[in-house]
Structures are given as C-alpha cells and as structure tokens.
Amino acid sequence: MKLNEHFKDIAESYLFSDIAHRVNAYTAANPDKKVLRLGIGDVTLPLAPSVIAALHGAVEEMAHKETFRGYGPEQGYAFLKDSINEHYKRKGVELDSDEIFISDGAKSDLGNILDIFAKDNVVLVPDPVYPVYVDTNTMAGRKIIYMDATAENGFLPMPDYSVDADIIYLCSPNNPTGAAYTKAQLKEWVDYANAKNAVILYDAAYECFITEDDLARSIFQVKGAKTCAIEFCSFSKTAGFTGTRCGYTVVPFALERDGMSANKMWLRRQTTKFNGVPYIVQRGAAAVFTPEGQQQIKQNIAYYQRNAKIIADCMDELGIWYTGGKNSPYIWLKCPNGMDSWQFFDYLLENIQVVGTPGAGFGANGEGFFRLTAFGSEEVTKEAVERIKGLLKK
Ligand code: MLT
C-alpha cells in the first residue's frame, strides 16, 4: 500500500486551521484577554426568518409518513433548482435547470469537480489565491502555474496568450483581495479560454456583495462562457449558510470536449459519490429566493457592507493602503511599518487581540498584506477598529 505522496507537497495544515490553532494557543495562555476574530470569513448574523420558517416546515414534514422524504435526487430537488434558475434569469442568464447542481457548498464542489478532469491538465491560478484551488490540485499531483495579482494590475490578472493553461481559476469578487472583474474583463478571459480549449472554474461565492453594474454577477453574463466555464455559488456568504451547508454549481450543456459532456460527467460523478443535500436544508435554501427571503438577506448583506465601511474608514484614517470592502466583504491591506504578514498577525494578536488573516497564507504575492473580514458582528468590528487605531495611530 502506498499513500498519496502528493500530500507531501502541501502545507501540513490548511491555512484557516493553522490560524485557529495559533489563536487557540494564545487564548489558552491568556484566558483573561478578549480576542476579536476578523480572520476566517465566517458569518455572524443568524439565518433569515423566512429560511428558519422553511426549515421548521421541512422538519415537520419529516415527522409524518405522508410527507417524509428519504433519498432525494443527488443533483438537488427541482423546487430549488428552478428557484435558482429564476434567480439567474433576473441576472439576464438563461439556463436549463438540469445545468444546475445543488451541493453542500462551493468549497466541496471546487475540489470535487477535479474528478472530471484529466490529471495532466495544467492549472493556472492567480497569486494570491483562495488556498483550496492550489491544495486540491497539488493533492492530485497536477502542475500549477501562477499569474501575478498585484497592486499594479489591481489584483485582477488578465490573460496572457503566451501562457498555455487547461484549467483556470477565477474568483470574483476575489477572495482574498476583494477585487472584482468587469464583464468586459471577463469577456477577455472567456475568449482566451475558448481559444486555448481551456475551462474556467469561476468562483462566484461573493457575488452578492457586488454594488457596481459593470461588474459581473455571473460569468454566464458574458457571451461565449457556456462553452468554457463552470460556475460555483454558495448560500454561505449570501444567506448565512456557513454552518447549514448549501451551494450550487452550474455546468452548462455546451461545455464539451472530445465528444464528452462535462454536465453528463458531473452528473455521473455526483450520482456515484454524493447522495445530495438534506431535503430540510434545500427547503431552507429555496426560501432565500422568495420575496421576503430576498429582502431579509439583503438586510444582512447591508449589515456586513456597513462593517466593511467601518474597517475601510479606519484604514483611510490611518493612511493604510487597502483594496476591497466595496464590492466584497474583505479588506486587503498593506501591512504597516514594513511588517510581513505573519509579523503583523502576531503584532495584532499579542498587542490588541485582533485576529486577521496573513496575506502570505494566500500565496507569495500576498506577503506584506493582510486580510480583514466584514463578517464579524458590528460590535466586534467597531471594537477591533478602535483597538487598531489605538495601536497604529502615530
Ligand atoms: C475564507 O475566510 O476565506 C472563507 O471562509 C473560506 C471559505 O469560504 O471556505
């Protein structure tokens, strides 16, 4: 027996597990200190009332012989897929409901989708990047090449035709930098992918934070995307499902290579390895698309947007360079006083007990940067900002 030797090529623990261990060690050693967590992008507001009502209703259905459900369709119930389809229509995107697959979250599908791709594909990712794209491909032994996302290109790398790639990851609005592609910029990526016979794995988990109309809310708003893109979406950041788990992935019928359909392959993969998201959770997710649900989640998103502004205003006041916060729940800032990412992490934790995410954890170009999340409570965000000002104000 041989274990997968490619695990030797990834860091011993996942970035956010590593941070959690460090913070837990600090709190164990300093039990009297109140730690404020603006690190992992985990939401803090409860689920919307209409989601809770739908969850309760579905639990009740499970209590009666007439309405009880066992195994559901692996790719999700029609009631939820149809609601998502309507949601896409409102964004000007026409889909077939069978192009939509319900999952337990974007992270799982971003990793699992690799089952349908050959091992010798070359993977192109931006640097810095959400670590899941790199770690999952490294585990599978794929070759990864990086494109620089820097302050100079607004953390939005554009295609370079001298580079040959097969699988391209784009995340917009971006985790960790908060930068978001316009539709015109995404069109350039779609043209590149179609020209290179490549596929774009498009992570749209933060789409609900977009406030500007020229920015893309879905890659399928761009002409030509259906022959080269798969889109990953999540209820986590949109509707507070980080602990409830539900997402969806769009695999267009038009995405085919060598006579093989990516949609059929993904269906085959899911029916084999996945038994679907719980009925109760899918009922909760469907409630997000009702008029009341939409109104309620918009209030929650607005709350996080206000937190983002509180953090951004603090950076303005301190004269610290940053991006994000506007179309994104993340503020990506330059570490002050020449500190590197982990030095700044320790400096904040030890002096003011504020936890953020070191930019270096997202890749080499993240070194010297730091990410703060707007998903904390308003109270924690305000207190963290006051502590940061107290520490860094000259
Ligand atoms: C993050 O903090 O980057 C996110 O929580 C990661 C995720 O959604 O998995």
Quickly list its features:
single chain; 394 residues; alpha/beta; Aspartate Aminotransferase, domain 2; 2 domains; seven-stranded mixed beta sheet; 12 helices; binds D-malate
| Gap between N and C termini | 60 Å
Which word captures the global form? globular
Q: Give the amount of beta strand, in percent.
A: 5-15%
Domain tally: 2
Helix-strand pattern, N to C? HEHHEHEHEEHEEHEEEHHHEEHEEEH
Spatial sequence of strands, sheet with the most strands: 2-8-7-6-5-3-4
CATH architecture call of the largest domain? 3-Layer(aba) Sandwich
Task: Give helix % range.
Answer: 25-40%
Bound molecules: D-malate
What is the third-level CATH name, the topology of the largest domain? Aspartate Aminotransferase, domain 2
List how many beta strands DSSP finds. Answer: 15
**What is the highest CATH level, the class of the largest domain?**
Alpha Beta
Task: Provide the structure class.
Answer: alpha/beta
CATH H level of the largest domain: which superfamily? Type I PLP-dependent aspartate aminotransferase-like (Major domain)
Query: Which runs of at least 5 residues are low in confidence (pLDDT < 50)?
Result: none
Mean pLDDT: 97
How many helices? The count is: 12
Q: Kindly provide the radius of gyration, computed on alpha-carbon positions and rounded to a whole number of angstroms.
A: 21 Å
Largest pleated sheet: 7 strands, mixed
